[in-house]
Amino acid sequence: MFAAIAIFVAATSLVSGLQSDLQHSLAARARVEHISAVSLSIYVPVEPSNINVAVGHMQYGGAGAAITPNALYQIGSNTKSFTAATILQLEDEGVLSIDDTVGKWLPQYPAWKNITIRRLLNMTSDIPTYDDMESMLSAYARNPTKYFTTQELVGFVYPRIGLRSTYYVRNLYPQNITRRMVSGYFYSTDPDNNGLQPLYGKDMRNLSVSWAQGAGGIVSTPEDVTRWCHALYGGIVLKPKQQRELESLVSQETGKPIAETTSQQPRGFGLGVGTMLTKSAN
Predict the structure, then answer these.
(1) pLDDT for the residue numbered 193
(2) Does the structure show a pLDDT above 60 at 2?
(3) CB 100 within 8 A of CB 113
(4) I want to staple 238 with a disulfide (CB 3.0 to 4.6 A). Which of 63, 114, 133, 243 is the partner?
(5) What value does the mean pLDDT take over residues 2-10?
(6) DSSP character string of 100-169
(7) How far apart are CA 99 and CA 200, in angstroms?
(8) Can you name the residues that pair with 276 across neighbouring β-strands?
(9) Residue 11: per-residue pLDDT
(10) How far, in Å, CA of 278 to CA of 58, rounded?
(11) Is 98:119 a contact under the CB 8 Å cutoff?
């Protein structure tokens, strides 16, 4: 009986000491870290239950009820261990391997196709974190109760083409764009173009592009066009099936499918893109 009393007194003294330490810590750090409470739970192998201590209030500045050891917290990145354990259980069940790639399970994201699940879990994938993106932070601040879908979150960090100087309008470009444009002029010796003669020699920057629209109305820089071509032909914009459709050629001479251009079929066109075999100069 005396041993039980001694253990009870020691435990009570320990809890009292821990509570005092936590209270001092909260007083010192509350304003600096903008916190309202501190909880501590200690697992002791020989004890039937944890030692639990809590100080502070449910709301910042001493507002709300005093907290208890049963108060809930958002556990943040501790969530990652739950996710990893679940995936490892799936591996044990033969559903997947942690050395499977993103390309195997999520082929809609070809830019990350070679990244393994292992690298996703051990934080070496080099995929940016979406909560570092200004666009995501602003979207959350505007509507903090919004449900963000997985697709939306991935969209904040998935590689975009990044065309910073590419514009499209259906009619007249505004002055903030036209003043950056190099002047272009209609001129032709082809009699079929005689209808354009009234425009020959005129600066075309300020004229309507409504005649071209989706077939030729974009204004851009060489750098942006290069970036677009890299993305278009590099598998970033389209999935494999659509990529093959884009690049499937027909002869401009016969209208029939061709595998590639030749001296007999020097001009081929895919879907909105083309290739031309040019004669080398002698």
Answers:
(1) 83
(2) no
(3) no
(4) 243
(5) 48
(6) -BHHHH-TT-GGGTT-BHHHHHTT-S-PPPGGG-HHHHHHHHH-TT----HHHHHHHHSPP---SS-EE-
(7) 63
(8) 267
(9) 66
(10) 75
(11) no
